Protein: Proteasome assembly chaperone 4
Organism: Electrophorus electricus
Amino acid sequence: MENGDCSSQQAVEAITVYDFSEKILEQVVHFHVMKLNGGFFLWIGTSAVLSNLAVSMCSKFDSMPLSTSVLGDSSETTPNSLAQRLTKKTKKQVFVSYNLPMTDSNLTLLVENRIKKEMELHPDRF
């Protein structure tokens, strides 16, 4: 960029969408992934609700990725923590919307393990 020119010479990747579901602790959990240029958006839930949104990205100043709540109750840390761990794993910017009951830590762990399994099976989708 020279002289205020905001145009980019990089090729822009198309946004791709990928969905998968899994029965976890007697409920069907849906996962919606939108692969973005340099990151991805991950929605997790049982019904079409967007109650929160967190974003995380790598920092050159700290080994732990930065994260913040963009939408929803900022005292709920599950979306932030998940986004942070996924950023650490992928080295990408990650948006997470976690729309499941926050009362069961086993559910959260099983959901995260299912995401990691899917990332191993289909790394090109994330």
The chain has one domain: 18-125. The longest strand covers residues 27-36. The CA atoms of residues 23 and 115 lie 13 Å apart. Residues 105-121 form the longest helix (17 residues).
